[in-house]
Specification:
Length: 59
């Protein structure tokens, strides 16, 4: 699961906005594809570090 996804509220931690079903299924809930999510790839290292909700193996 994406380290930036809040499963209870179905929100991306980067924006605090709800994610569409497609986004959730293809990125947020994926064990590996979340690294390709545009929400993730376009964020700075600092954002990635500060906004994570659970461990990010890439950092």
């Amino acid at each position: 699961m994406c380290p930036y996804y809040n499963q209870e509220y179905k929100q991306c931690a980067f924006f605090g906005t709800s994610q569409e079903q497609y986004q959730r299924d293809n990125y947020c809930l994926s064990s590996s594809n979340w690294k390709s999510c545009p929400n993730y790839t376009s964020r700075s290292f600092e954002e990635k570090k500060d906004k994570k909700l659970r461990s990010n193996p890439e950092l």
